[in-house]
Amino acid sequence: MRKQPKPDNFSGAHPPRWADRLLEWFVAPHLLEYVQGDLQELFYKRVEQVGPARARREYVWGVIHCLTPFFQKPLRREIAQPFSDYPQPAQTVMLRNYLKIAFRNLAKNKGYSFINISGLAMGMAVTMLIGLWIYDEISFNQYHKNYKDIAQVRRVYTDPNIQKTFGTEAMQFPMRAALKSQYHHYFKHILMAWWVSDYTVSMADKKIQKRGEFIDPGVLDMLSLKMLKGNYASLDQLHSIVLSKSAAQAIFGEEDPINKNLKIDNRIDVVVTGVYEDIPRNNRFGDVEFFSPWDLWVASNGWIKEVENEWGNSSFGIYVQLLPHVSIETANAGIKDFYLKSTPKETAEQSAKYKFGVFLYPMKDWHLYSELKDGRPSGGRITFVWIFGLVGFFVLVLACINFMNLSTARSEKRAKEIGIRKAIGSLKNQLVQQFLSESFLVVILSFALSLLLISIALPWFNQVADKALSLPVESLLFWAISLAFIAITTFLAGAYPAFYLSAFQPVKVLKGTIRLGRFAALPRKILVVVQFTVSIILIVGTIVVYKQIKYAQDRPVGYNREGLISVPKNDPNYVGKLDVLRSELLNTGVVAGVELSSSPLTAVWNNVGGFKWKGKNPELASDFSITEVSYGFGQLVNWQLIAGRDFSRAFATDSTKMIINETAAKYLGLKNPVGEFVTFYDGKQTRQIIGVVKDLVMTSPYEPEKRAFFFLDANYKSASQIDIKIKPTVSANAALPEIEAVFKKIVPSAAFNYKFVDEEYAKKFSDEDRISKLASFFATLAIFISCLGLFGLASFVAEQRTKEIGVRKVLGASVLNLWGLLSKDFVLLVIIALGIAIPTSRYFLTGWLEKYTYRTEISWWIFAASGAGALLITLLTVSFQSIKAALINPVKSLRSE
Amino acid sequence: MKKTILGELEELVLLVVAASSEDVYGVPVMEQLQVLTGRSFTVSAVHTTLYRLEEKGFLSSSVGGATAERGGRRKRLFALTAAGGRVLLDIQQMRQQLWQSIPIGKLELLGL
């Protein structure tokens, strides 16, 4: 940076005004002049030495240090005078008195205190849990020091035929070189990478499944990993591997891993050259357990070497780190037209036709904005951050409303105290202080209780939310935030009662003529309505989310996943042994069938475009998902043929045939698809359709299944999964060891890592499952907190009307009459709440459901059920008190006085 | 007689005031301390100590000239009193005694 010539009198630099004000307000006048003078003198010196910004910070720091009792004390110089009029500052005396009264009040009304404190504690616990969750979400990927500068290169393109824009993170191999030669002025690192996936890492006989990433060596520096052994140059050798600490421990135990040999997938030799501290889970690379050089991956995969200069193959990831002074906008603007400017002529022409654009997908958005629309990030988890943030806030508000309601409801009981205080000279301001300090006490107690609740609930919450949260008790920031949280809650809960109570007129109160008019209870009623509105919305939401999940789970999947397991075929030694493997497995007697497929049943790995068929509309997109399967696959998974036949060894030419799914059949628009031909993109190869099966749900259970082709893969050339069906009569626990034994015998080098297909399928629901569990948790709590408040309020009303009830009973009212009298008011409030909650929840949930193509209806019974539920709970809560009141012997209630 | 105990910072500040040829105020004391100890002190710490020493009778103070860089504010200037000088001598004497009572060769044995 250039040095700025300094102005002579630093007219620009002044100490912060607010700090000066603070100092002037706090420090005793006889000390102020000297200390402020010193501070300012120092300030101007420091401006010269370290610049205005830092000097200002130091000034504030200095002022803050002056906020000690020493500087506040009245004239110390006249200390010779032994007694002052006020031996202690009057303030603490009053404050202590307030707290004493508050404690007595709490102890006297144990029931109310319990409701107040436990309700508030629960509300605070929920809010803090949500706060922790939100913090975790927001701090995603921030473990890496340079997270602001790291980005992934993405491409958007528009299909001119259908005018639809798509996006991809898969790039071409030569792009790295082009970026490096022509755009290096933006980037510190340009790293080519394969996709994070599972590999078998082996040492002698020990085989362990580990997630790893093959990426250019700069990754260690880019991600600012903490190297426990080795350094940022550790990946520079071709055959190197850098392990996470836990992976190193899993493989080597306590031994020093450095310079030990390992084998990846039993074919790539590597030497351990470094160990890094595990990346925390809330990071994109948090599940990566090793890094190995990209060049090694290229050297080990012939096909990648072949496409080294090929612009037609997009299969690789590119991560970049910007230079410190380059903003993401600048870089984006610079590389936007990469394809037009920096690729060979043909590619550039093709790119222009498809409107290729390149942009950087910044790391800070990877998690919160993970959903892409038209190839660009548009939303994602950020929605949940908002939703849960709102829910947390509302739960806290519910709890605070309880507090307000109970405090104001009991106001008549405390009216005398307020009257007397005012009569002996309390100012309104002091009474406000008193009530605020009372609520402060309650909030502090609740806070302590909520910390306890959180520590109990955290393990469960972590499991449900799939997080590793903990209370950061050693972090100063946490306590600072907690303090602010306590202050906010105190004010939220205490402000209204404080101002309400302190406004009583002493004369009226003491004369006993205070009549809280017809509208005195109105705010209280409004608060109850708000409480129940929120609760009912949460109930309806929970039911709808649950129903949506259930709906998708019950969707027919088109195959039978019972007892199906899949084993990845990721070892070169499988080649040529698959038929032996099958017959050996069948010989064990626990297996019903063994077949192979190119992708697991719960995913589609291959999409191919460019197909043509008879009568195809040229505007129509021509891509289909392709799965290659072995002969008996259909029978193994029990797919359901609608037309035609399955692949069969009886027909020698089946390798040029295919089976399509129902969606594809509709899409092709052929009257009778069986027997028709489909031409490949090269215009030469064709395949004949021999059968149509019902849709197999392989991708999202919420979306209509994509049009799919199934090809026969008779000699397992593209097989990647070994699909095994365990006999229904045999339990999986019994079958697995036998299956493993066969694998070990035939292909000893391969790791036996199986996955149950139904479990993999269930994982597709994990997000929704999580929301449903969390939502029901919050709804339950909200209802509970609301009920606590209602309970307190009802008991108060019953108590207040004891005399009235006594008189009514004497005059002949029945218990039922009285019960109705006392419950009616509350039921009315809940009905009003229902009237507000139903349209609101309907509006929001319709919006949520619209995200899913395959969705459930919001039927009337949901509202009916939640309405009835809310009414029932209200009645139960209120009835307990009202029946109790109605049953009291009138002699007792009328005898007093 | 009540025994007067001086804290470390108090002793240092007293020594700094004693060592200066003229009356001093907060900022030079603070800078001197920083130079000597290498630690940083806040204005408030220095002031508190100065006033405390004055209260104990080891320093006396007067009001001094204002300068522009202080925004026209006056300084409080401190000077050592006889009692202050005495307490410094007491401390030095006590230290000297302790030093002399260290057995000969003990520090050398520790390699110092």
Automatic annotation (TrEMBL), chain A:
Residues 113-337, 613-741 form the MacB-like periplasmic core domain. PANTHER family: ABC TRANSPORTER PERMEASE YTRF, MEMBRANE COMPONENT OF TRANSPORTER-RELATED. Keywords: Cell membrane, Membrane, Transmembrane, Transmembrane helix. Pfam families: FtsX (PF02687), MacB_PCD (PF12704). The keyword Transmembrane helix applies. One of its GO terms (molecular function) is transmembrane transporter activity. GO terms for cellular component: plasma membrane. It comes from the Bacteria. InterPro entries: ABC3_permease_C, MacB_PCD, Macrolide_Exporter_MacB, Permease_put_prefix. This is FtsX-like permease family protein. The keyword Transmembrane helix applies. The chain crosses the membrane at residues 114-135, 384-406, 440-461, 476-504, 525-546, 774-798, 810-838, 858-878. Its main location: membrane. Belongs to the ABC-4 integral membrane protein family. Residues 390-504, 777-890 form the ABC3 transporter permease C-terminal domain. It is a multi-pass membrane protein.
From TrEMBL, chain B:
Residues 15-88 form the Transcription regulator PadR N-terminal domain. It holds the Pfam family PadR. InterPro entries: Tscrpt_reg_PadR_N (IPR005149), WH-like_DNA-bd_sf (IPR036388), WH_DNA-bd_sf (IPR036390). This is PadR family transcriptional regulator. It comes from Larkinella terrae.
